[in-house]
Amino acid sequence: MDGSYASASWRDALIARLTTRQARIGVVGLGYAGLPLALRFAETGFAVEGFDIDPGKISAISAGRSPVHGIADDRVAASGMRAHGDAAAAAECDVLVICVPTPIGPHKEPDLSAVRDTLAALAPHLRAGQAVALESTTYPGTTEELLLPVLAAAGLRAGRDAFAIYSPEREDPGNPEGTVARVPKLVGGATPACLAVGQALYAPVAGGLVPVSSLAVAELAKCYENVFRAVNIGLVNELKRIAHAMHLDVNEVIDAAATKPFGFMPFRPGPGLGGHCIPVDPYYLAWKARELGVPSDFVELAGRVNDAMPAYAVMRLRDALDDRRIPLRGARILLLGLAYKPGVPDTRESPAVEIFRLLQERGAIVAYHDPLVPRFPATRRLHGTSPALESMALDEAVLAAQDAVLLVTPQPGMDLDLVRRTAPLVVDTRGAMRGAGPGTVVAA
Questions:
Q1: Where are the transmembrane segments (predicted)?
Q2: Is the CB of residue 166 less than 8 Å from the CB of residue 143?
């Protein structure tokens, strides 16, 4: 059979199955990005197979329950999705979409072990006519370096009898506007045929398509959109420190600047970066830049500034306690909010965890309150020694017993008026309690 004819035959057959919703979609990694995507495919008429190594997720989905905060049980129950703890059912799938974590290692290096492990598990089940799409955030070159050799080892050539796609997730947990159904989808393919398949795959489920010329363009665009935020947050975090030195309210300064109707976009300072992308992506891009021998000064500087913010918050707390002649060692400190942002229970890379560690290291007696994080999670930041703590009740007795309250993440429903009235000292890293009056609330 002529190669070009074979390519067109496999491509056209898969596109036809996708267009008519007859294709079976496999989603690997059923977390904050993978599960909403799998449900979206199911809700638009596709048969869906879900894969995850977490037995708890498999059990929950099989019982019609959602293992992800913010996703209703009834959506999972109605999806008809089957959940698997191994990859055997991947052979039944026409498309395999990989949505696994890509964190950084202890030395800020990219950790692609989950992607490699996933590809190794899928390899025995790959076949002609399939497409494999990677959605995990990563540095440019990953899909070509990791996926294409796996296809080749299975006797498959990308663009001829199998299709390699990169289409980064853009899910924003807790934001109803930040879902796959509403956000335009970047799509890159290893070849024009791969791109055509990718567009047919995502057209029914995404809030528009943005096809790009290559896998690497899609990978770099994803890095850039998050590095853009990291750099601007780093800038405003530096501004915060300058404003504090001048005894100015940084949020008032930002509000004033934001009245300019052009050439300005407001970002807000905080205690540091958290979550799955913004604290991680700068290091992926900087790592790739170093490999290429290209400087990435802005990117690396922003990373250093943002990484330093938890220590800055602890310093502001220490200074506020010193003003009251209370040493930090032995002080009773209540952290408000352990998650990385309001409205979610996600503690990945949360600055609150680093603040907790720094306070313990300095001898403070630390507890926390977070209505969405009932128990302190295991985390590498505490080197396997995460405290066996549960979220404290937020009541007058608990607040009055503290030397200080450190507001890290204001969760919905958190009674900040009670905190303002009752706590002897509040150190606010978010500007959530502006206007509380001098002496009660200290900005951090």
A1: none
A2: yes
User: What is the C-alpha to C-alpha distance for residues 334 and 330, in angstroms, rounded to an integer?
Assistant: 13
Question: Which pTM was predicted?
Answer: 0.91
Of the candidates 307, 332, 360, which is a domain's last residue? 307
How far is the C-alpha of 54 from the C-alpha of 431, rounded, in Å?
Answer: 37
pLDDT at 3 over 70: no
Give the domain-ending residue among 213, 240, 258.
213
- Residue 1, pLDDT > 50, answer no
Do β-strands 185-189 and 163-166 pair in parallel, antiparallel, or remain unpaired?
antiparallel
Residue 289 and residue 386: Cα distance in Å, rounded? 34
Same domain? 313 vs 419: yes
C-beta separation of 38 from 30 below 8 A: yes
Buried-exposed string 341-350: b where 16+ CB fall within 10 A, e elsewhere: bebbbbbbbb
Find the domain containing 271 and state its range. 215-307
Task: Tell me, yes or no, if 93 is annotated catalytic.
Answer: no
Residues in the chain: 444
Token pair belonging to 208: 């528009």
Q: What is the CATH classification number for the domain harbouring 327?
A: 3.40.50.720
